[in-house]
Amino acid sequence: MDDFEARFFEKMPEAIPLYEAVKDRIFSSMKDVNIKIGKSQISFYYEKSFAFVWLPVRKIKNRPDTYIILSFGLGHQVESPRIAEAVEPYPGRWTHHVIIQDEEEIDEEIMDWLRQAYEFSTNRKSHPGDV
C-alpha cells in the first residue's frame, strides 16, 4: 500500500484489510488493471473505470461498524440480496453497490460481477467522468 492509499483510509484504517483483499483479488485475476485514488473513492480501471471502493460517509443504522462499499458498472441490473443498491445513471449503465464487511465476502460471485464489469467497461462508449 502506498502513501496515497494509506491517506485515503486515515479516518477508517480498520477497513484497509477489506480494501487490500479486493485489490489483491482484482489484480490477481484481471490483466493490466491500475488504480486511481481520489478524495472519495479508489477507482480500478483498465481502459476505463470498472470498479470503485469507497468508505461510508456517515454511520447508517443497521450497518456494520467497519465496511467498505464496492461499486461496479454493468449493462444490466443484477438482482441479488448482496446488492445494497443499484441505480441506472443513464440508459444501459447500471451502477451496483455492495457492502463488504469481511474479506471472505469477496468470493466467486463478487469476482464474476467484477469480471463482467471489466469486460463491460472495455466495450462501452465513453461518458463524462470516465477515466
Provide a short characterization of the protein structure.
With 131 residues, the protein is α+β, with helices and mostly antiparallel strands. It is built from three helices and six strands. The protein has one domain: Yope Regulator, Chain: A, CATH 3.30.1460.
Span of the ends, CA to CA: 21 Å
CATH class: Alpha Beta
The number of distinct β-strands equals: 6
Mean pLDDT: 91
- Tell me the CATH topology: Yope Regulator, Chain: A
Overall form:
globular
Number of helices: 3
Oligomeric state as shown: single chain
**β-strand amount:** 25-35%
Organism: Anaerobium acetethylicum
InterPro entries: DUF5655
Domain DUF5655: 9-121
Protein name: DUF5655 domain-containing protein
Fill in the keyword field for this structure.
Yope Regulator, Chain: A; 6-stranded antiparallel beta sheet; globular; alpha+beta; DUF5655; DUF5655 domain-containing protein; 131 residues; 6 strands
Describe what you observe in this structure.
It holds the Pfam family DUF5655. InterPro entries: DUF5655. Residues 9-121 form the DUF5655 domain. This is DUF5655 domain-containing protein. The chain has 131 residues and is of the alpha+beta class. The chain contains 3 helices and 6 strands, in the order H-H-E-E-E-E-E-E-H. It has one domain (3-123): 2-Layer Sandwich (Yope Regulator, Chain: A). It is globular, with a radius of gyration of 14 Å.
